[in-house]
């Protein structure tokens, strides 16, 4: 159970006075520990009205969930949350064009992106159109040779192979020249995207994107795979209304069976898990657990996922392996695996991805070490960590940017330079819309290409413009910081304080009820007070494993991933025999058939 602790006050980085839980106003990561803000009366009302444990009420109140929607928040359903596809601009145009392709038996090409969102959206469209009897070609560009999004050579190649309709997924909204060329040669294109749009739109039969500047939808946080799912629903409905299934002796595809793909892409693309996204992920996890997708089952087998899958497995185990194909292997294998129904072929592809993921880790470690050395020389007051390196593999810059963001709590851009061209990726923090800043730089002529969303962006920049681009980003981010509330980057928000005995499976199970957790619904962080470190060692690739015991009994395992060379890691390695306050995320520990709990360690402070 949670318990009340004495609090002291400390001055935060913005000059305000914050109450420090357990007296921790400068932890081993330099943060003040604060109780997550939330209306205590709201927490109590949620607990009483819904008949749920107090901690559930506190978690929801800490995320500003109103009392009137608390029930649907805890139990999100597609029936209540899923919008009518037709409310999106151009959706009806897209549906009409796809229905015509179905009726005329046209060859359709699906042009996707090489990340997980693009792979899942491509596989979903492939499965759906294939079930309608169409010949479908999936085209995923080579990250190194072609870069992001449609290119003119790809459009010409698809047309030459007989495609009459191209559906771009997770890309296309900024592909002005390639789509103009497609129109010139008579190739119809439907854009199905979710990235920030510019003031103009590319030439296409339809541009379906909840982030169009003229769009009025409330569902701006959909991942591309979510938009593709709505498009499939729209086409399916139109075919039903036209009696196409009856007239052609076909059963309608089971769209609900695609929800595991939707959940995977939604979690891995770091879009907020609020609103319809909560329902898509919650229901998608049920489909994934049922094991209907042959490719995903093969991937779970080779990656040794034995537990009931949750957002953690999607984001940190399955997703990286799908990504590895696009980063260091074959970009098209991810969508091919996710659309595969042959168990033997699926297992072979999954093994390839496992090998590529191992190779990706080695490349990532080399680039990360160099990037960390450069980042250490950047002034502490710089608004963005911006590093670039000759010969870096462009396939890992996004992961390295994520690692640096975790270390420095600031927006990060990492650029791989090769032959005078820089291919970069950025990751942002709460309150800073990096995607909008990158799009503005592109519109200002500083980039060859660029786009993204609030938390992540990608770009291509010529090396001579690198410094100008960096200065532009710094100016835009500083302006955003000046106009935004304190992002809390130097504050660790704590949802509750436990002792070691309280961090038990029953408590962890209660906390899981408020999931799925992710961006927009952060996983609860708990402080475990007065825990004695009985054992600590390094395992795997720089991970630290700890075992804690409590004065009132109980034991708890903790893991601090990729931390051996950090301040937190050094403190843990020197903590054996000491009593500490340790903060992190509680997860079930079912390794080896046990029914336990482990703490994913985020921070540490000496209890004495």
Describe the structure.
The protein has 21 helices and 20 strands. By secondary structure, the chain is of the alpha/beta class. The protein folds into three domains: 7-62 and 495-606, OB fold (Dihydrolipoamide Acetyltransferase, E2P), CATH 2.40.50.110; 82-353, inorganic pyrophosphatase (n-terminal core) (Alpha-Beta Complex); 378-483, Diaminopimelate Epimerase, Chain A, domain 1, CATH 3.10.310. A five-stranded parallel sheet has the order 5-4-6-7-8, sandwiched between helices. Helix 5 (91-104) packs across helix 9, helix 9 (224-241) runs antiparallel to helix 11 (259-268) and helix 18 packs across helix 19 (466-483). 49% of the residues are buried. Residues 1-16 have low confidence and may be disordered. Pfam families: DHH, DHHA1, RecJ_OB. Keywords: Exonuclease, Hydrolase, Nuclease. This is Single-stranded-DNA-specific exonuclease RecJ. Residues 494-603 form the RecJ OB domain.
């Amino acid at each position: 159970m949670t318990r009340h602790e004495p609090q002291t006050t400390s001055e935060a980085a913005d000059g305000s006075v914050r109450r420090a839980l357990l007296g921790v106003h400068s932890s081993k990561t330099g943060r003040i520990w604060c109780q997550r803000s939330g209306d205590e009366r709201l927490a109590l009302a949620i607990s009483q009205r819904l008949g749920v444990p107090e901690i559930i009420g506190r978690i929801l109140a800490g995320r500003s969930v109103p009392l009137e929607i608390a029930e649907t928040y805890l139990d999100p359903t597609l029936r209540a949350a899923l919008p009518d596809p037709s409310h999106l601009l151009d959706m009806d145009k897209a549906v009409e064009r796809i229905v015509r392709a179905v009726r005329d038996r046209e060859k359709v090409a699906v042009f996707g992106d090489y990340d997980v969102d693009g792979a899942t959206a491509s596989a979903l469209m492939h499965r759906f159109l294939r079930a309608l009897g169409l010949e479908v070609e999936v085209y995923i560009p080579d990250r190194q040779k072609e870069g992001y999004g449609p290119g003119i050579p790809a459009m010409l190649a698809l047309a030459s192979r007989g495609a009459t309709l191209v559906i771009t997924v997770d890309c296309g909204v900024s592909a002005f020249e390639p789509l103009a060329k497609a129109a010139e040669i008579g190739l119809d294109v439907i854009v199905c995207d979710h990235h920030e749009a510019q003031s103009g739109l590319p030439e296409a039969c339809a541009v379906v994107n909840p982030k169009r500047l003229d769009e009025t939808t409330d569902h701006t946080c959909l991942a591309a795979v979510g938009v593709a799912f709505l498009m499939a629903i729209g086409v399916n409905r139109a075919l039903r209304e036209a009696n196409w299934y009856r007239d052609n002796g076909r059963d309608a595809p089971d769209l609900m069976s695609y929800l595991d793909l939707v959940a995977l892409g939604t979690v891995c693309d770091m879009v907020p898990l609020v609103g319809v996204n909560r329902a898509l992920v919650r229901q998608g996890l049920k489909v994934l657990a049922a094991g209907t997708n042959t490719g995903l089952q093969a991937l779970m087998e080779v990656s040794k996922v034995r537990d009931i899958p949750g957002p953690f497995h999607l984001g940190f185990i399955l997703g990286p392996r799908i990504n590895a194909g696009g980063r260091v292997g074959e970009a098209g294998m991810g969508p091919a695996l996710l659309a595969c129904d042959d168990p033997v072929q699926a297992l072979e592809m999954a093994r390839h991805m496992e090998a590529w993921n191992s190779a990706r880790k080695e490349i990532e470690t080399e680039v990360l070490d160099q990037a960390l050395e450069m980042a250490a020389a950047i002034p502490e007051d710089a608004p963005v960590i911006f590093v670039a390196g000759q010969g870096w593999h462009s396939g890992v810059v996004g992961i390295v940017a994520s690692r640096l963001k975790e270390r420095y709590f600031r927006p990060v851009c990492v650029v791989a330079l090769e032959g005078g061209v820089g291919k970069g990726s950025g990751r942002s923090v709460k309150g800073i819309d990096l995607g909008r800043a990158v799009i503005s730089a592109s519109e200002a002529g500083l980039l060859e290409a660029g786009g993204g969303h609030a938390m992540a962006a990608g770009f291509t920049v010529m090396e001579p413009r690198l410094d100008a681009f960096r200065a532009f980003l710094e100016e835009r981010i500083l302006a955003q910081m000046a106009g935004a509330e304190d992002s809390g980057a130097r504050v660790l928000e704590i949802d509750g304080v436990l002792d070691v005995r309280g961090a038990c499976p029953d408590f962890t199970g209660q906390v899981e009820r408020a999931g799925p957790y992710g961006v927009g619904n952060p996983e609860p962080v708990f402080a475990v007070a007065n825990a004695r470190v009985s054992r600590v060692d390094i395992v795997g690739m720089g991970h630290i494993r700890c075992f804690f015991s409590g004065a009132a009994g109980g034991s708890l395992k903790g893991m601090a991933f990729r931390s051996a060379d950090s301040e937190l890691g050094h403190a843990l390695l020197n903590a054996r025999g000491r009593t500490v306050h340790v903060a992190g995320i509680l997860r079930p520990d079912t390794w080896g058939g046990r029914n336990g709990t482990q703490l994913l360690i985020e921070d540490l402070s000496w209890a004495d």
